[in-house]
Amino acid sequence: MGGHVAEKLFIGEKKITSGCSSDLVNATEIAYQAVMKFGMFGEEIGYMSSNTDELSEGMKAKIDEKVK
Questions:
Q1: Is the pTM of this model over 0.70?
Q2: What is the CA radius of gyration of the chain?
């Protein structure tokens, strides 16, 4: 996400490219890993490690909220 900020600072907000999109993809993937694989759900949901195929739609929605 540093690439996005650098572009904004150095070339201006109206000229930002899509080159920094991989930063956002990687940050999102790390957030999902933190929540799903490393048990960082918090006390609200519980501490566990899981795969998406093991979860209900309700739990997947809660994970999405935590990642956001």
A1: no
A2: 16
